[in-house]
Input
Amino acid sequence: MTAICLCYEVHEPYQLRRYTVFDMGQNSIYEDDDHNCDAMLRAARLCYLPANELMLRLIRRYGKDFRVSYAISGTALDLFEQYVPEVLESFTALAQTGCVEFVAETAPHSLAFLYSRQEFDRQVQTQTARLKKLFGVKPVTFKHTECVYNNDLAAAVAELGFKAVLAEGTDQVLGWRSANHLYQPVSAPELGLLLRNTSLSNDIGLRFSDTAWPAWPLTADTFASWCHGLADAADVINIINDYHVFGLRHSKESGFFDFMEALPEALLARKDFHFATPAMAVKKFKPVGKMDIPQFISWEDESGDLTAWLGNDMQKDAIHALYALASRAALSGSAELRHDFDRLQTADHFRHMSTKWFSSEAPDRPSPFGSPYDAYITFMNVLADFEMRLKAVEEQQKGPAPAKATPVKRRTGQSPKALPKTAEKVPAKKTAPGKKAATDKKQAPGKKTSAKAGASTKEKKPAASTAGADQP
Output
């Protein structure tokens, strides 16, 4: 039997406001709250609420025969909680059906793995724990930001305890092989590697609304026939897209919601087809071979590389400057700095600096800046202010320098212990026989003191010999 694996990336970034040099040191409000609120209200109305309602309706209609998976970023969860909690409630309702798998990723939707393994591990573990708390199940599948993947990532994911990882099925890594099978990474044979079917995913994700596309308008029956045609040479067909395809990339007027509502019935018309989650696919199918992918790949553009985020000097300078502060931010002990540092790692900030995408950016994820250069200047101004705050915390951690004690002059031969609280008494001088002994008190009239008596009088010892023991 052939499994259809539907997986959606659910991500929303916090956009930066226009932060200038005049703001540095004056305020540390980096994000555009008005823009973020408006964007979330619009996304909830056009995409998240109607799409989740559709998915819940399909699950109720087909029961366990319909499955879907979501990779939700931590920033998306933050925005849902802050502005549209009803969206988070709708995902919770989907989770309670038992037909949904939640896939883990880095909490801020970052590229941390490329620069800091410590940051990457922390972000993945944080997001995994949050998903378990929200939806009741610990994630066993991992998908990196925009399906970024290589051999080293697979090894790191396996070390974190995951059972499956999603990646892009690019032609340069597949060669003569098919994306429609389960593979093993050469660096982590115990991990299941599921590759995105690029062509079928893009038919839905990118080309559906393109009136110049020969297959437009695409119907559920047509798409199902393409999938059915792979039955003899496919174990699992992974269709992975941005959730923005619902209502934002393809409007409701385009017929996309009607298409997706009709698709399960068209696919399930063949009894040898069924829906599965990535975790189910890894359990059911055996790997057909090992996949060696030493270079980084992603689902961005036909090149399938990292140039969407690291294609020019501005992007490289910004991301290198950011991760140069990673260890200092971790040692700062400041929850506020840690929070801001995470938000600055969101990959969207670097994508807005891309000159490659400036002329043809995705309409559902527009840049809030007038140009890539504006995005770069804003980010570097924010980072400069962040470093100023980081330095201030580091100075506080050092504490004030201890005051220098005034040196005390000691008498020759005196013990190095502290001086006594009272001044030393000078010992009485010895007197020659037959002479009066010198005393501190006046002699009573009419009485004489003999030399013998004076000699027998006990002399008081110098206080210095015992003062050290009494000094606190």
Observations:
- Residues 408-472 have pLDDT under 50 and may be disordered.
- The CA atoms of residues 244 and 365 lie 9 Å apart.
- The chain is about 40% helix and 10% strand.
- The radius of gyration is 37 Å.
